[in-house]
C-alpha cells in the first residue's frame, strides 16, 4: 500500500490498478490445498462460491480503507493452468462454463451490490482459449452484462495467430475490450 501511494503521487495521471487472484483458501477448493489446480468446491450459487465472491469485495473494501481503489479485477489468474511440472502452483481451475456461472450467480451480483465501481475481466489466460472462452462467457447476456473485457496473456502467441484469436473475439464482442494482462520474457 505504501508503494502504491508513492507511485500514485509520482504519476502525472491517476493509476488504473487491477487485481487478479491466484488461489482461494484451501477449505473452498476441491483439492483442499492452496497449491495445485483444484476447482472451487460445489457449484455456482452455493456457499463456497458466494464466500469466494465475498472475498473479492472484502479485498476491495480493505484497500479502499487505505485510499487505494481498483479499476478492475479478473475472475482468476490462469484458470486453465494445469502445469504438472509445477505442482506447487497456486491456482483455481475453471472451465469457461464454470467461470460464466460463477459470474452470473456470485461474483457479478456481489460486485454490482458493492460500493466499488470496479470492472470485471474474464479469462486472464493464454489467447489460445479465444474466441471459445469469450463465446461461452460473453455469449450469455447475463454474464456479459457484468463483464467489461477479456484479459489475455502472451506466452503461447506463436501457437495461434492474432487474427484467429484476438481479431475473431473482437469481431464477435466489439463492446468488450481485450487487454494484455500478463507477459514476460523467458
UniProtKB/TrEMBL annotation:
EC number(s) from the headed UniProt entry: 3.2.1.45
**GO process annotations (BP):** cholesterol metabolic process; glucosylceramide catabolic process
Which GO terms label this protein's molecular function in UniProt? galactosylceramidase activity; glucosylceramidase activity
Q: Which Pfam family would be a valid example here? A: Glyco_hydro_30
Q: In which pathway does it act?
A: Steroid metabolism; cholesterol metabolism
- Family stated for the protein in its record: Belongs to the glycosyl hydrolase 30 family.
Q: Where in the cell is it found?
A: Lysosome membrane
Membrane topology for this entry? Peripheral membrane protein
Natural source organism:
Caloenas nicobarica
Gene3D superfamilies linked = Glycosidases
**Chief location of this protein?**
membrane
Q: Which domain of life is it from?
A: Eukaryota
What is the official name of this protein in its record?
Glucosylceramidase
- Sorted alphabetically, which InterPro entries does this protein's record hold? GH (IPR017853), Glyco_hydro_30 (IPR001139), Glyco_hydro_30_TIM-barrel (IPR033453)
An example Gene Ontology cellular component term from the record?
lysosomal membrane
Which parts of the sequence belong to the Glycosyl hydrolase family 30 TIM-barrel domain? 1-186
State the UniProt keywords alphabetically: Glycosidase, Hydrolase, Lipid metabolism, Signal, Sphingolipid metabolism
Question: Which reactions are catalysed by this chain?
Answer: beta-D-xylosyl-(1<->1')-N-(9Z-octadecenoyl)-sphing-4-enine + cholesterol = cholesteryl 3-beta-D-xyloside + N-(9Z-octadecenoyl)-sphing-4-enine; beta-D-glucosyl-N-octanoylsphing-4E-enine + cholesterol = N-octanoylsphing-4-enine + cholesteryl 3-beta-D-glucoside; a beta-D-glucosyl-(1<->1')-N-acylsphing-4-enine + cholesterol = cholesteryl 3-beta-D-glucoside + an N-acylsphing-4-enine; beta-D-glucosyl-(1<->1')-N-(15Z-tetracosenoyl)-sphing-4-enine + cholesterol = N-(15Z-tetracosenoyl)-sphing-4-enine + cholesteryl 3-beta-D-glucoside
Amino acid at each position: 500500500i505504501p508503494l502504491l501511494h508513492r507511485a500514485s503521487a509520482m504519476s502525472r495521471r491517476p493509476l488504473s490498478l487491477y487485481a487478479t487472484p491466484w488461489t482461494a483458501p484451501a477449505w473452498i477448493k476441491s483439492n483442499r490445498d492452496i497449491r495445485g489446480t483444484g476447482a472451487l468446491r460445489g457449484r455456482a450459487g452455493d456457499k463456497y462460491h458466494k464466500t469466494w465472491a465475498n472475498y473479492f469485495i472484502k479485498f476491495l473494501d480493505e484497500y479502499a480503507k487505505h485510499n487505494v481503489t481498483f479499476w478492475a479485477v479478473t475472475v482468476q489468474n490462469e484458470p486453465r493452468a494445469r502445469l504438472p511440472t509445477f505442482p506447487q502452483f497456486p491456482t483455481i481451475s475453471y472451465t469457461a462454463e464454470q467461470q460464466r456461472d460463477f459470474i452470473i450467480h456470485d461474483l457479478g451480483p456481489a460486485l454490482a451490490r458493492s460500493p466499488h465501481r470496479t470492472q470485471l475481466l474474464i479469462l486472464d489466460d493464454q489467447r489460445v482459449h479465444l474466441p471459445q472462452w469469450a463465446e461461452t462467457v460473453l455469449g450469455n447476456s447475463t454474464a456479459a452484462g457484468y463483464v467489461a473485457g477479456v484479459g489475455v496473456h502472451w506466452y503461447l502467441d506463436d501457437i495461434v495467430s492474432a487474427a484467429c484469436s484476438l481479431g475473431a473475439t473482437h469481431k464477435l464482442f466489439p463492446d468488450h475490450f481485450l487487454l494484455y494482462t500478463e507477459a514476460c520474457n523467458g
